[in-house]
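Hi, here's the filled form for the chain we discussed.

Project: internal
Contact: R.S.
Residues: 117
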Amino acid sequence: MAKVLAWDRRGRIRAVRLQDPEADRLLPGMGEEAKMESWHLVTGDGRVWSGGAAAPHLLRLLPGGRPLAAVASAFPRTTDRAYRWVARNRDRLGRRLGTQACAIDPAGLRSGGSSGS
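And the returned structure, exactly as it came back:
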């Protein structure tokens, strides 16, 4: 998450922990299990995308991300499969990449802009 927030030089994305009460407000009607099994992107108008389906929408918010968003949109099943593979293997990837690459510093989460939960 820290890398995405650093990429977001315009400050359009705001990270919210899924355990934060604000996540319940941003994701109304979403059950606890569904909320916790993925990541979610919530736009200013309240639209919600989750998992791999959220990737193209997130990428469009990032500087230079539109070409990657186009690829993710063109291959939604592949994008979703890639997301699910990373999610299933995050422990193994964390060990290979090192804890710093996968760490989220709670103090480093900034506010403002669209909400990525």
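Let me know if anything looks off before we file it.
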